[in-house]
Write a structure and sequence with these properties.
alpha/beta, 2 domains, six-stranded parallel β-sheet, 16 helices
Length: 402
């Protein structure tokens, strides 16, 4: 098998200090997977990338520790509305356990006041008005029934002893969180902000005469701690991390032709076979380079034996009819090189191409990471390199060349 060159076209024109780290990671994987390739960088960021200082980014909202913990709590509850109730159903929640004999105060609260609340309109007049005024009344009863049908509320009140007010709030928040979850799932999504959710909770608590329960409980303290150590750093860095990638994509509309010229000249200068290995915006540019080259005839960059795009937005721009070289609805040009498009559903900047083009291969990986980390994780995933290895082997095999 002959040797070739992997020409790496990176995806952002800023943070050039990270190029060396990425190149090192690529070279390690090339050796690990025994790919018959040298690795070469196609530098373009210094000349064509954006100069982003982050001066336009807003500051995080000014919140107290309790407000920040409350915000995090609602974020989590929207993912798992039953989180608090599950804690109250386990000994680790700090509840007093089942009370033998007569019903406890919490059980009485559930049986005589809360369990029938959703079905009686005369006891929730203000709540009904609030739901109607915000056009979310359709979500209340289905969410209530979903939470009740789990049997967790009944169990939580049974084991709560004298802590009925705490469980009452946990149940009310579960219902509202389920409403948020359901409202976000409809098409189009219906926004239900946490501040509105808190109003709904407080009205239910008032109607049940349980408003004396304060928010400074153990759960709030736990979420408050998580906010300081995890969430605030993530929120602070999220916009700064994502803005350069979006900025480069927008800037590409202005400098795309120059960037493509850089890639084409670099690839044409390499003797022997070349595989374009590209990430994010680099995938857009390399895709369009090959569209142009194949429209010009096989003689244009005929040494490129394969295109590899990782976390690329080329399919999205094609569907938006925003590419500069290929209009929506037009097929890939004849003799387009083998194209491997690797995407990760966790990566919000990656898109699949197989539903838009024929003769092209999509490959899905799962980094199990949040969106920002997932966008840069492709280099460390063995599945990524297994797919790249297969593409290169097939392209360099005697059968494909014969």
């Amino acid at each position: 098998m002959s040797s070739a060159t992997l020409l790496f076209v990176h995806g952002t024109g800023v943070r050039s200090s990270s190029y060396a780290e990425t190149l090192h990671q690529i070279r390690l994987k090339v050796r690990e997977f025994k790919l018959p390739c040298d690795v070469k960088l196609c530098p373009w960021g210094e000349a064509l990338g954006i100069d982003f200082e982050g001066l336009s980014l807003p500051e995080p909202p000014a919140r107290s520790a309790d407000e920040e913990a409350q915000a995090l709590r609602w974020e989590y509850l929207q993912v798992d509305p039953l989180f608090d109730l599950r804690l109250w159903c386990t000994p680790s929640a700090g509840n007093p356990g089942t009370v033998l004999g007569d019903d406890s105060a919490a059980e009485t609260l559930w049986n005589e006041t809360i369990s029938s609340y959703a079905a009686t309109s005369n006891t929730k007049v203000e709540l009904s008005a609030l739901l109607e005024n915000n056009q979310i009344e359709a979500f209340f009863l289905p969410a209530w029934n979903k939470v009740v049908d789990t049997e967790l509320p009944k169990k939580a009140f049974k084991t709560a002893g004298e802590e009925g007010p705490s469980v009452a709030r946990a149940f009310a928040e579960a219902v509202v969180a389920q409403m948020m979850h359901d409202a976000a799932a409809v098409d189009p999504p219906v926004p239900l902000p946490p501040l509105l959710g808190i109003k709904i909770v407080n009205l239910m608590i008032f109607d049940w005469d349980q408003e004396r329960m304060g928010l400074r409980d153990l759960l709030l303290k736990v979420f408050g701690s998580a906010t300081k150590t995890v969430v605030r750093p993530i929120r602070t860095g999220a916009s700064r991390a994502i803005a350069p990638a979006i900025g480069d994509i927008l800037n590409y509309q202005a400098v795309g032709e120059k960037l493509r010229e850089v890639i084409q000249q670099e690839a044409a200068s390499i003797p022997g076979d070349v595989f374009l290995l590209s990430h994010s915006l680099g995938g857009i540019a390399c895709f369009e380079v090959m569209v142009q080259a194949r429209h010009a005839g096989v003689s244009g960059l005929g040494n490129v034996k394969g295109l590899i795009t990782l976390g690329s937005q080329a399919p999205l721009l094609y569907e938006f009819n925003a590419l500069q070289t290929l209009k929506k609805g037009n097929p890939l040009p004849a003799n387009f090189p083998p194209w491997l498009n690797v995407y990760d559903e966790n990566d919000l900047l990656s898109y699949r191409a197989d539903r838009l083009f024929h003769g092209q291969y999509d490959f899905q990986v799962d980094s199990m990471l949040p969106p920002l980390e997932a966008h840069s994780a492709y280099w460390k995933l063995d599945r990524t390199w297994g797919a790249i290895q297969k593409l290169i082997q097939n392209a360099l095999s005697p059968q494909s060349n014969g």
